[in-house]
User: Fold these one by one.
Assistant:
Number 1:
Amino acid sequence: MVEPYKSEILPHWRYKDAEVAARSAKEIYALFEEYRQQNDFVGMDMARKFIQMGYTRARRYANHKSGKKYDEKRQVKPLDCDPVKAEAAAVFKKWWDKIRADEDYLQRKKAHQQKWG
């Protein structure tokens, strides 16, 4: 993770349930917008990454309550669904989709990739 962004964003990153996830995603998205106002694409992308990780981490716990997908033999464990975490994941997914559809973000991403590879 890239500093100072990790220290700025991580305290807001929570996915316990849908209510907590909604507050978390809203706060992280506000940071995304602050970085946009500062013309800081790296900050925007780090905020996007934390929202995406909110989705993927909540989905992991939604599918496997222990958070562990594999058993000690490296076999995929059967699904042990947690609907509370699934709702939290859905909250983050909406915010992630909003960013992925943001034309300004996409243009900045393309420019960044062209410049830095």
Number 2:
Amino acid sequence: MPAAPVIVLTGGIASGKSTVAKLLAAAGGRVISADSLAREVLLPGQAAWKEVVSAWGQGVLTSTGEIDRVKLGRLVFTDPAARRRLEKITHPRIFDLMHQQMVEAQKSAAFVVLEIPLYFETECSVPADEVWVVYVGPLTQLKRLQERSGLTHEEASARVAAQLPLEKKCAWADRVIDNSKSLAITEKTVKTALQDLLASKKACKDEERAE
């Protein structure tokens, strides 16, 4: 049985990747989130947790010994060297777990979605049939980030600036999902893109059988 197609879902911070991921999950996809895996590798006692505490001290921990993501974020998003250090600790472990889960999911899912916010920024590559970028305008992005995370305008701007511009990501994407309008329009865009991908994969399989 051929492996299920794989979509890398990426975009900018607060662009609506989770919204699109939920739509794809509702359509029958198995979503594997890099953010969820990041939380997993940073659980107390894990190797990455120990390295983070060694690098930044007990001050990045909550009262229960977990990594305080807000505190850690404030340290690394204003310091490129610190951010690279954190990524070196976490990214290899995240992508190893992701690859394991992807291979397993391909055995039974109709398609697999790898939700990777920093796909273009990282050196870790994953095999995918298509890369989808979720897009919103810069003002909307900042507004959503401030409302969602309780950040100041300066903090939100720093986090956006730490990533590649969304316009550049869109230029590299196989498909762009415009999430700047209504949810209904986003849902329609996702449905059409998914139908196109699955139809294309089916056509390729049919050609292979005919040869």
Number 3:
Amino acid sequence: MKPKPSRSDIDTFHRSDSAISAVISAVLVLGLIVTATTMYQVRYVPAWKGDAECSHLADVYEDMANLKSQIDMLSAVIAANPGSQVSVSVPIKMGGGDIPVIGPGRSSGTLSVNDNGCGMWIDANNATGMLPYSSDVSLTGLGSISYRSCNNYYLNQMFEYENGALILVQEDRSLMKLAPAITLQQLDGTGISMAVSAIEITGDKRSIGSNAVEEIRLTSDSRVLLFSGDHPFSYVEITVFTEYPDAWAQYFNRTANGAGLNSSDYAVAVGGTSVKFLLAGGAGVDDIHLRVRKSTIDARLDVI
């Protein structure tokens, strides 16, 4: 006959059972915490960080738009006072997307001066078939300023200032966000007026990568009148050399349509790294009034 369990044995069993239950409960709670943390890190944090990096790119766009505005202002200053020299510093927010406590890591970016080659060539003919004006090499090296993001979650973008325009690039697509100083106007019964104010960016070819705030120093240099428009033409062709011809083609089409030109008055042709804009006047008539200027702005990065 088995001996009857004592009270101490029963108490020990109950304590062991309670301990096992406590361990199981702790493991279950720990599992829930790990699962919740993993879901939080995998699902929510990337979405929040992506939104934060997207917001930072909006800030960069504002900075680059301010850069273009400052260049336009300097161009106007040297037009009014040719001998003056004015300098301004433009800050660019290089990195962002940090969220305190949740995700403090920041994205970064690369700021470059004259990293991409771009330029312009203008030819103008009269009704006799002669070529009375060509910009030749005076506009072929206009320079550029660009910002390229290095994001951790959101799609990377690039903003490029070239030929007086600000272009947004994402993957293989490009869009002109701010137009250059090229005006096209249909005159009442007297033809077409076209004014080109080219912007040349000079300065050493430099780049800097950072996640802080960097500055570009802009200094007005000179402004020259390349063609005064003293006689009209029947044919004007502008060739823009760029890595983003689609953006320029959209701009020329939109500008011509906005000026009320007919499809027979102009043509736009896209090449590999160039786009041509052809403006044709009336048959056998010199009725296109062209004026060409170039402003030179020096741009420098403080890179050690």
